[in-house]
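Action item from last meeting closed. Structure (653 res):
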C-alpha cells in the first residue's frame, strides 16, 4: 500500500482520467492497425507468388504450343538433300557407275517424293537399280514416302559420248510434299550438280596430206583410225569433208557413198587394238597462198542395231602454191551454161603453160558424171579416145604438141555429147540433176619440188544444172467425161450453138516450176460459158464471179480467169512440183466454149481457142521458161467419137 502510494505520488485528477483512457485506446488501435497491415502484406505477397506461378505456366504452355506449332506448321527444306556421286573425268563412251544419294534430315515424313536427273543430250542411261521414267532431258525416280531421318541411294550405270575435252553438266533435285503441307517443295544445292569432262576417247584418228600442192594439182590423203578401248565396236563410220575446189578421183577402199564435198566409209566392226587406213587420191584447186582444210570425223556404235555417234574429228591443212599450167572448160562457149533435154553440148578444154620451163608428156583427161541425163551413145571426141567408164583421154599420140608444151604455149581439146530425150525418173528424189565434168592434166616428165612425175598438175571442175522444162498440151472434146455436159449439133451447124470442152495439160520434168501462166484468146464466134473444172471441182458462171474476186485478193492461189474486154483466158499456177505427169498425175484444167458459126463458115473448120502461150520459172536453174500449144478447133483430133468430117460446119437443114 505504501509502495503504491509511493509510486503514486502524483495526484490523480478526475479530468485526466479521460485522457488516459483515450491514450490507452489509441495504443490498442495502433496495435490492431499494425496487425491488419501485416495481414494485408502477407496476402499481397501470396498474390504475387500466384501471379508469377501463373506467368511461368503461361510461358511453359506458350513454349510448348510454339514447339508444337513449329513442328506442325514449319519446315526447313535445306535439311532435304540430294547428292550425285561419281567420277568427273571419264572416257567417251565408257560405262561409269554413279549414285544419287538422298536424305531427309527433317522430323517430318515426305510424301510423293521424286528424284530427278537433268541430263545432256549425249548422256545415255544404261541401267538403274530402281524403276525410272526417261524423257529426252530428264530421268525421274518415284521414291514414294520418305520418312523423317531416312536416307537412300539410287545406283545407276551410264555413259556420255562426246569429243575429247568436251564438258557436260548433270543436275539432280528432289520434289516432295511434307506431310504437314499441301504444297510441293524442291530441294537442290551445289552438291546436287556434277561437271563431267571427257578426257579421253576410245579411238585414235589422224589425217595426213601434203603440206602444199599446186593449184589444181594431185593430192594424196591418208586417214588412220584405231580402237584403243576394251570395247568391240560395230558400224565404224569415217566421214571425210573436202574443201571447196577439191576433186575426188579415187580411194582405197572405195567409199560407201559420196556427196558434194564429202565421202563416207562404213566398216562392220573393229575389235580392241584393231586399226584401219583409208587412202584418198584427188586434186585441189584454189588461189595461190590459200589454205585449205580436209576434215575427218569418226563415229561408231557398240551394237549392230545401234545408231553410230561421233567420237573424234581431226583436220589437215594444205597450202595452195602456183601452178605451172592453167586449164579451163566451157559448154557451148559458156562457163555458166544451163543444159536442156535433147540438146547437144560442146565441151572445150583450154590449157596454157604459164611456167618459164617447157612441160613434157602431157595427158589430158575428162570424166563426165550425169548418167541420168547424158546419152553416151552420142559422144563425139575430136582427136581423143574413151574407155568403158567414159573417161576421155588426149595425149601426144593424138595431139603431137602435148609431147612438149613450151612456155606460154596454149591449146584446146573438145568433145560433144547430147542429153537424153527422156530422163531416168524413178521417184520423187530424181530431181535437180546436174552434169559434172572434171578435166585434169598430168605430166609424166615434169620435175619440180612440189610436183612429182606422173601426177596431176592442173584440174578444173565444171558443174552444169539441167532444166527438164515444162510442157504444155491443148486438146478439145465434144464427148468428154460428163462432168460438164455439152449440147448442140455435131457437125457444127450454121446459125446454131454447139458447146465443147477445151483441156490444157502441164508436165514438169526434174525441176520445181513456179510463176506459171497459160493464156489463149477466143476468136470472134467463140464464147466463154463460165463453166470450168479446176482441181477436180466443177464451177459454173455464178460461182465463177464470186471465186474470181476471191482469187484476185489472194494472188498465191491457183486460178482461171476470163477477161471479157480482151477475150483472153488465163490460167495461173503458183507452183508445180518436179516430175508432175511422170510420178504424179498430169496437171490439168478444162473449160467450156460455145461456138455459133454463120452461113459464111459452112465448109470450114472453126477455131475454138487460139494458140496457147505459156510462161514459167525454173526454181532450180533460175531459168525463165516459155512454151506454146496448138489452137483447138472443131476438128477435135483428140476426140475419137468425132469423125474426120464432123468438125466442118454444115448448113442448117
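Sequence:
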Amino acid at each position: 500500500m505504501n509502495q503504491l502510494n509511493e509510486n503514486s505520488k502524483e495526484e490523480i485528477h478526475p479530468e485526466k482520467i479521460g485522457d488516459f483512457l483515450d491514450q490507452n485506446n489509441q495504443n490498442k488501435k495502433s496495435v490492431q492497425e499494425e496487425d491488419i497491415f501485416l495481414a494485408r502484406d502477407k496476402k499481397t505477397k501470396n498474390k504475387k507468388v500466384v501471379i508469377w506461378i501463373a506467368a511461368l505456366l503461361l510461358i511453359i504452355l506458350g513454349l510448348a504450343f510454339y514447339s508444337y506449332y513449329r513442328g506442325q506448321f514449319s519446315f526447313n527444306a535445306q535439311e532435304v538433300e540430294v547428292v550425285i556421286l561419281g567420277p568427273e573425268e571419264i572416257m567417251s563412251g565408257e560405262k561409269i557407275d554413279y549414285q544419287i544419294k538422298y536424305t531427309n534430315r527433317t522430323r517430318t515424313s515426305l510424301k510423293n517424293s521424286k528424284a530427278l536427273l537433268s541430263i545432256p543430250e549425249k548422256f545415255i542411261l544404261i541401267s538403274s537399280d530402281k524403276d525410272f521414267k526417261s524423257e529426252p532431258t530428264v530421268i525421274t525416280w518415284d521414291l514414294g514416302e520418305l520418312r523423317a531421318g531416312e536416307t537412300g541411294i539410287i545406283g545407276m550405270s551410264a555413259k556420255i559420248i562426246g569429243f575429247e575435252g568436251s564438258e557436260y553438266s548433270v543436275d539432280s533435285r528432289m520434289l516432295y510434299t511434307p506431310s504437314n503441307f499441301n504444297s510441293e517443295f524442291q530441294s537442290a544445292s551445289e552438291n546436287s550438280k556434277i561437271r563431267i569432262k571427257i578426257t579421253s576417247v576410245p579411238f585414235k584418228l589422224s589425217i595426213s596430206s601434203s603440206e602444199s600442192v599446186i593449184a589444181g594439182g594431185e593430192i594424196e590423203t591418208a586417214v588412220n583410225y584405231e580402237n584403243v578401248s576394251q570395247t568391240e565396236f560395230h558400224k565404224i563410220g569415217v566421214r571425210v569433208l573436202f574443201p571447196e575446189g577439191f576433186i575426188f578421183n579415187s580411194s582405197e577402199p572405195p567409199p560407201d557413198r559420196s556427196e558434194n564435198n564429202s565421202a563416207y566409209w562404213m566398216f562392220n566392226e573393229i575389235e580392241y587394238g584393231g586399226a584401219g587406213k583409208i587412202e584418198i587420191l584427188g586434186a585441189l584447186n584454189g588461189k595461190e597462198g590459200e589454205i585449205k582444210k580436209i576434215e575427218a570425223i569418226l563415229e561408231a556404235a557398240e551394237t549392230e542395231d545401234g545408231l553410230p555417234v561421233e567420237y573424234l574429228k581431226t583436220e589437215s591443212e594444205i597450202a595452195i602454191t602456183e601452178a605451172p599450167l592453167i586449164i579451163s572448160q566451157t559448154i557451148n562457149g559458156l562457163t555458166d551454161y544451163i543444159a536442156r533435154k535433147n540438146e547437144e553440148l560442146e565441151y572445150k578444154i583450154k590449157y596454157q603453160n604459164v611456167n618459164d620451163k617447157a612441160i613434157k608428156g602431157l595427158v589430158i583427161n575428162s570424166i563426165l558424171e550425169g548418167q541420168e541425163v547424158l546419152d553416151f551413145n552420142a559422144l563425139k571426141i575430136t582427136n581423143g579416145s574413151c574407155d568403158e567408164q567414159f573417161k576421155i583421154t588426149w595425149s601426144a599420140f593424138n595431139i603431137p604438141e602435148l609431147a612438149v608444151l613450151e612456155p606460154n604455149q596454149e591449146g584446146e581439146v573438145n568433145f560433144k555429147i547430147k542429153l537424153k530425150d527422156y530422163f531416168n525418173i524413178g521417184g520423187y528424189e530424181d530431181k535437180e540433176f546436174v552434169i559434172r565434168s572434171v578435166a585434169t592434166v598430168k605430166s609424166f616428165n615434169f620435175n619440180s619440188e612440189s610436183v612429182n612425175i606422173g601426177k596431176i598438175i592442173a584440174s578444173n571442175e565444171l558443174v552444169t544444172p539441167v532444166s527438164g522444162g515444162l510442157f504444155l498440151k491443148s486438146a478439145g472434146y465434144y464427148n468428154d467425161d460428163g462432168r460438164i455436159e455439152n449440147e448442140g449439133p455435131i457437125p457444127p451447124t450454121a446459125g446454131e450453138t454447139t458447146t465443147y470442152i477445151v483441156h490444157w495439160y502441164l508436165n514438169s520434168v526434174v525441176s520445181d516450176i513456179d510463176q506459171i501462166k497459160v493464156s489463149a484468146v477466143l476468136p470472134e464466134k467463140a464464147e466463154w460459158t463460165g463453166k470450168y473444172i479446176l482441181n477436180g471441182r466443177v464451177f459454173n458462171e455464178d460461182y465463177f464471179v464470186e471465186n474470181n474476186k476471191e482469187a484476185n485478193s489472194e494472188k498465191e492461189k491457183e486460178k482461171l480467169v476470163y477477161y471479157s474486154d480482151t477475150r483472153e483466158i488465163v490460167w495461173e499456177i503458183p507452183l508445180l512440183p518436179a516430175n508432175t505427169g511422170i510420178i504424179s498425175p498430169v496437171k490439168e484444167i478444162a473449160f467450156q466454149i460455145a461456138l455459133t458459126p454463120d452461113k459464111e463458115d459452112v465448109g470450114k473448120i472453126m477455131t475454138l481457142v487460139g494458140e496457147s502461150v505459156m510462161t514459167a520459172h525454173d526454181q532450180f536453174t533460175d531459168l525463165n521458161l516459155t512454151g506454146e500449144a496448138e489452137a483447138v478447133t472443131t476438128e477435135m483430133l483428140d476426140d475419137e467419137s468425132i469423125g474426120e468430117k464432123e468438125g466442118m460446119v454444115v448448113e442448117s437443114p
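Note appended to the action item: Helices lie at 2-7, 14-73, 541-553.
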